[in-house]
Design brief:
The complex is a heterodimer of chains A (about 425) and B (about 70). By secondary structure, chain A is mainly beta. In chain A, the strands form 8 sheets. In chain A, strands 25, 26, 27, 28 and 29 form a 5-stranded antiparallel β-sheet that branches. A 4-stranded antiparallel β-sheet of chain A has the order 3-4-5-6, with no helix packed on it. The relative contact order of chain A is 0.09. Classes of the chains: A mainly beta (about 425), B mainly beta (about 70).
């Protein structure tokens, strides 16, 4: 389902609408669930065998004049940005080579080029990863394929001015297990975490692989940048898999570890065979977090303002764990210039979701703008859209838009200016 | 008539993902003019121009989109 807030002249309107996927339409017609577990067709009703199982429910992007609802297991679903009507799967005029497309494409703010990828691109449990270069006007101009060391979830990636970087983590996909009705992914702590560094210009023929000294998982990325010799990745890293969603293959009693923001700096003059000496790992700030966001004008370049969902028990108690783990109670802001952390505490029984940054103007300084977050008011079974001054989030909302009912918690959003 | 005993009636599974605050909220809706607390103040939003995404002074709409997990 899409939630759209339209804001102008001090007024706000709301539209909510389901994406009409083939799965949605089939189940609505049948008035019952026909599709079973996450990405596991062997748990489906026989009447929908072979049918597209897509849900188009992870993120949304507006690029090249098209609004696309994204889920990493399927192709993009195009929507009408005004009516939210479903227009159908979009294959970039037949140029999309794979059947999958990431929910986290990156848009270069200078060139407006969108870099995207699809994993499991040659079928379920395949190790092939397709990379897509999509021009500012939405044309898919180039695609290349590389093979990952094992088939696994590749939820996010990083793009700098000169490189495309994948952190391959062992949230593995074993089709024999899927056929037995087991979860689509398992965390295999005995496999290595590997990093693929691919030049944006020359592509996969010049791919370089690095091996992380530990087995870790990248959850979501802030950004990446480089100066040609050093490549920096800022992202949230956990020492476990997403165990709230998928089990540990080796230790069924393992618990999910909290993610911390890390910077990985690669010395590109060092041969990758030197192992861990080829890159350094530093913690960016000392607080857990997830759902990272930066000022989108700094994607692919060095940014200094970090926004994320988090908790802070000095400001308010943790909320009861939900099916996706502990809810956020705060939005965090780390300023790398001043090395300070600031928090917006959403209030008792309130859980903010992923923040969204809107610059004040095209020429304003980094971080000068607004931070938006949808806040679940759990005690009231209702939702707010909260607007914060992005450089002063601890002062509380500049404005709060009250929704008279509960919007189901979402994953990711975007902002589209009227022009 | 007791609809809950009808074989074809909808019942969500008794699982955490369908309970409490995580319960499905399947409302397709249009709400015109939501209540706003603390008006957007142009003076606190800086200057405005055609490229300024201020939340109070634009003449046309500036949609903000968010996608839920309800599928």
């Amino acid at each position: 389902m899409i939630h759209k807030f339209s804001i102008a002249n001090g007024h706000a309107d709301l539209k909510t609408k389901y994406v009409r996927t083939p799965k949605f339409l089939a189940e609505r017609a049948a008035r019952r669930a026909l599709f079973g577990a996450y990405r596991n067709p062997y748990t489906d009703d026989p009447s929908v065998a072979g049918m597209n199982r897509g849900t188009a429910n992870t993120s949304i992007v507006f690029h090249g004049g098209k609004m696309l609802a994204l889920k990493e297991a399927e192709r993009p679903m195009q929507l009408d940005p005004d009516t939210l009507e479903t227009l159908g799967y979009w294959d970039f005029d037949g140029k999309l080579t794979g059947q999958t497309f990431t929910a986290h494409p990156k848009i270069d703010p200078i060139t407006r080029e969108m870099i995207a990828f699809g994993y499991n691109s040659r079928g379920q449990a395949s190790s092939e990863v397709d990379i897509y270069w999509i021009s500012a006007n939405g044309q898919l101009t180039r695609s290349e394929t590389f093979t990952a060391p094992y088939p696994s979830m590749i939820h996010d990636f990083s793009v700098s001015e000169n490189f495309i970087v994948f952190t391959i983590c062992p949230m593995v996909n074993d089709w024999e297990r899927v056929q037995k009705g087991e979860p689509f992914f398992h965390w295999d702590s005995e496999l290595p975490t590997m990093i693929a560094v691919i030049p944006r210009l020359s592509g996969v023929k010049d791919i370089r692989w690095f091996t992380h000294p530990e087995t870790v998982m990248q959850t979501h990325t802030f950004n990446a940048w480089d100066d040609g010799k050093h490549l920096h990745l800022d992202h949230f890293i956990t020492t476990s898999g997403w165990l709230s969603q998928f089990p540990d293959l080796r230790n069924p009693n393992a618990h999910e570890a909290p993610p911390f923001a890390q910077r990985w700096t690669f010395d590109l003059d060092q041969p990758s065979s030197t192992g861990e000496s080829a890159f350094t790992i530093t913690k960016i700030f000392n607080n857990i977090g997830e759902m990272p966001v930066i000022d989108p004008r700094f994607v692919t370049h060095h940014h200094h303002q970090y926004y994320f969902g988090t908790t802070n028990t000095e400001l308010g108690p943790m909320l009861p764990f939900g099916p996706k783990g502990p809810p956020f109670t705060c939005i965090g802001h780390y300023n790398e210039h001043t090395h300070t952390l600031a928090y917006y505490y959403a209030g008792p029984d309130s859980a903010p979701e992923e923040p969204l940054f809107i610059p004040r103007s095209t020429k304003s300084a980094e971080g000068d703008g607004w931070l938006l977050t949808i806040v679940g008011r759990r005690a009231e079974n209702r939702t707010d859209l909260v607007i914060l001054d992005a450089l002063d989030i601890s002062s509380g909302p500049v404005a709060t838009i009250r929704v008279p009912f509960r919007l189901h918690e979402g994953f990711h959003g975007t902002w589209v200016p009227s022009d | 008539m007791n609809f809950t005993n009808e074989p074809s009636s909808l019942r969500f599974p008794d699982l955490p993902v369908y309970r409490g605050y995580s319960a499905p909220s399947r409302i397709e809706a249009e709400v015109f003019d939501l209540e706003v607390e603390g008006r957007f103040r142009p003076s606190s939003m800086g200057h405005t121009s055609e490229h300024v995404p201020t939340l109070s002074t634009r003449r046309s709409t500036e949609p903000i989109f968010s996608l839920t997990a309800t599928g």
